[in-house]
């Protein structure tokens, strides 16, 4: 499963309306995202208009390619275009962030070369 995090820029003066639009995304858009392989998809926003997206998918490039030609995606993107700062829309391409840490991956990996935790206590003579 590929984990994807990206950044976009919404106009700060339109952020409240952008958030409101995402409280009730069109059911057809939700279904299209699901069918294209977007799972665990979330958006997070800062007051300055920075929007961070996170999703999981088998193949991000393929999932985006499956969404690209859909009529519902074209309509949704057109409706959302006025909210984005110049060059900050999903159509232009969100800036993908590099993953640098994942708890589950590290817990599942063998601790190659990692020092063992100190489990001794004072006075333990075993």
UniProtKB/TrEMBL annotation:
It holds the Pfam family rhaM. Coiled coil: none annotated. PANTHER family: L-RHAMNOSE MUTAROTASE. It comes from Nocardiopsis endophytica. This is L-rhamnose mutarotase. It comes from the Bacteria.
């Amino acid at each position: 499963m590929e984990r994807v995090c990206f950044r976009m820029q919404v106009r700060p003066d339109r952020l409240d309306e952008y958030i409101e639009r995402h409280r009730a995304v069109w059911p057809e858009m939700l279904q299209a995202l699901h069918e294209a392989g977007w799972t665990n998809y979330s958006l997070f926003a800062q007051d300055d208009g920075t929007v961070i997206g996170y999703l999981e998918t088998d193949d991000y490039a393929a999932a985006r390619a499956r969404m690209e030609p859909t009529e519902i995606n074209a309509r949704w993107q057109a409706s959302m275009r006025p909210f984005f700062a110049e060059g900050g829309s999903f159509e232009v391409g969100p800036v993908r962030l590099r993953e640098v840490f994942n708890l589950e991956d590290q817990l599942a990996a063998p601790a190659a070369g990692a020092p063992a935790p100190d489990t001794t206590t004072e006075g333990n003579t075993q």
